[in-house]
Hints:
Blueprint: H1 3-22, H2 26-35, E1 53-58, H3 70-73, E2 80-84, H4 85-89, E3 91-96, H5 113-130, E4 134-137, E5 141-144, H6 147-157, E6 179-184, H7 190-202, E7 206-213, H8 215-219, E8 226-229, E9 236-239, H9 246-266, E10 270-275, H10 280-293
Parallel strand pairs: 3-4, 3-6, 6-7, 7-10
Antiparallel strand pairs: 1-2, 4-5, 8-9
Helix pairs in contact: 2-5, 5-6, 5-10
Amino acid sequence: MSGAAANLNADLRARAEALGQALPPLLAEAEMLAATVMLGEHGRRRAGLGDEFWQYRPAHQGDSARMIDWRRSARSDAHFVREREWQAAQSVTLWVDPSKSMSFTGDKGRAPKGDRVKLLALALAVLLLRGGERVGLAGMAAPRAGRSQMLRLAARLSGAEDGEDFGAPETEGMVSHGRAVFLSDFLGDLAGVEAGLARAADRGVKGVLMQVLDPAEEEFPFAGRTIFESMGGSVRFETQQAGDLRARYLARLAERKDRLATLARAVGWHFTTHHTGQPAQSALLWAYGALQGGR
């Protein structure tokens, strides 16, 4: 190894270690959660597929120069990456809803929905990366392998919710014929979900929809005079008899879940609802198993 290469590797290690020391407890919590899941031989590598050409795709932010196919790129104004079949099959893109809706909690002693989806996303990434997968965040980090990617994802996921009131799935950076996971409460306009699933299906992407709700959103424990307001303040409703709305609310919520399940089935995806009063481990096991079954 040349002196320059050795210095570069040492610099990268130092930066990764500094990043790791600066990270909040999210990564440690995610690794502890992942460690509770006994998956045995969970790698999805397939012998013999590494040399099979799959496709050219436009280069994304985060792709290194060595990934660029310069001969193909020279024939156009854009840069292209030459993908092999195993790279596509093992690329998983996560979308974690950044909207203000995810900061809701019905109990001050319980973490908000946003904390749970970030924990699940990062714990799932830990399992996938350790199994040889390439994992990325939609619109933020292209799928890559290795410990450095785990640190990168943890840093990106540690920010606060700062989007719109409700989120819609982001599909930028998804690898054709790869896998994807959408984590959200899906309480906004379902047209955005439908459009995101359609774009994923057009690329041959299979995956998982996981709806994460607070127990209060599942049970509707409200009565008397109540003011309902979205976390961003764009929706506000006041009633004197909240208890009278419970049956209608629960019926609408059931209809929404049915609609999400139908949308997922239509494109070969899996759907489930998890709430923050349940153990995170069960949701992690389900998500990993659903990804395995959707190969």
